[in-house]
Amino acid sequence: MQFLRPDAILSDAEALYLDHVLLVEGAHIAALVPYAELGRAYPVQRYPGELWTAAPVLAHAHLESHDAPSARWRRERFAEWVGELLAWRAQAGRLSPRESAWRALAELSAAGCGLVLAHVGEPGADGRFGPQRQAAPRFPEVVAFPEIFAPDPAETEDWLARLDRRPPQAGGGYALHAPYSVSESLATGVFARARAWSVLVSIHLGEHAEERQMLQGAGPLSDLFAARGRPGKSGTWRSPVDWLAAVGGLRAPTLAVHGGDLDAAELDRLHRAKVPVAWCPGTHEYFNRPRPAFGGAGLPPPALGCDSRASNAALDPLREVRLARRLLPEFGPQAWWAALTHGGAQALRRRELGVLAAGRQARVLRLPWSGESAPAELCDRLTGDAQLRPLGPVCEPGSNGI
Ligand SMILES: [Zn+2]
After folding, report:
1. How many angstroms does the Cα of residue 201 sit away from the middle of ligand 1?
2. Ligand 1 midpoint to CA 381 (Å)
3. 346 CA to middle of ligand 1, Å?
4. How far is the centre of ligand 1, averaged over its atoms, from the C-alpha of 61 (Å)?
5. I need a labelling partner for 286 at 20 to 30 A (CA). Which of 19, 45, 110, 204 fits?
6. In terms of Cα–Cα distance, which of 118, 55, 16 is closest to 354?
7. How far does residue 385's CA lie from ligand 1's centre (Å)?
8. CB of 225 within 8 A of CB of 232?
9. What structural domains and CATH numbers belong to the chain?
10. pLDDT digits (tens, 9 = 90+) for 325-364
11. CA proximity to 214, closest of 186, 243, 188
């Protein structure tokens, strides 16, 4: 048993404990007790000046394209950005997917990320480094889902046979690229398998107006697909959520990524179907997109992600939560801090994470404490102070750092 005493422990966004000791057995929290009740006989380790919180969980990212020169790419229309990305990817000299993943994880680790769900579009960008893994940062933990981009229904049989040869492992799942880039037959097969295995399907959904237009049979993305000899859709759908329902994905366990183009009624449909949303504020800002409807839907805020450096200036959970609060202040600092921690863990069905309380995993982000005594005051700083930096990578007692 370890007896760990930072100055302050933010158990969740509503509960701040001062002068308490975290009792940790193995990787799990046994109890949170007042220091005064513990007695002097126990070997308490002090961490003066430190605030500990549950580690941030980013529910969406890509570890590819870390060296993408995306700041100069045209992006008024999404189809333009896709053209820029494809042209850059065709060039020699960019980082390998593996090297990109290494740098992306180094950035996320220094920024204090505890877990990240990554769509893996390029083989090698899954955060597994073989013998080098020992030298890689221990956190964030990477949950890597190979991403399926397969708009042609002729590919369905091959893809499903491939998936059936390698059923998902515990904690695994599937990633579909988007409604416009995966055929209905393949999406239906993937969602059926996810139901059978009870694993998560993560899919970009309701990201921008061009996706909606393509589901209605028109627009710049339709033109881009046609120009590249890719097939269009097999039907038309008024809404990305209608498309999701049609292919059997409007149910748990599905994770909808982005959602910034969905209206309040569509977000409510997802919520009632127990489909969480992971929103990427940095990407939303990168594309200068209209204000999303999350705040008007009467729902809790979405979980947060950071996408990739092909559409974001940094991979940093604290920056994402600051941007989220700035873009949608109606939720308030505590709700946004909960979204970054507890919300991400819930969205990924990792209920042992996201809260520092008895029975949960002791995965801790260490931050400087500024003497706050109320959770509202503290969350205001955590979601508002651009100078705030972690004291080190996320850690678990007994493993690294503490
Ligand atoms: Zn993405």
Report:
1. 13
2. 28
3. 19
4. 6
5. 110
6. 55
7. 26
8. yes
9. 2-53+354-382 (2.30.40.10), 57-347 (3.20.20.140)
10. 999 999 999 999 999 999 999 999 999 999 999 999 999 9
11. 243
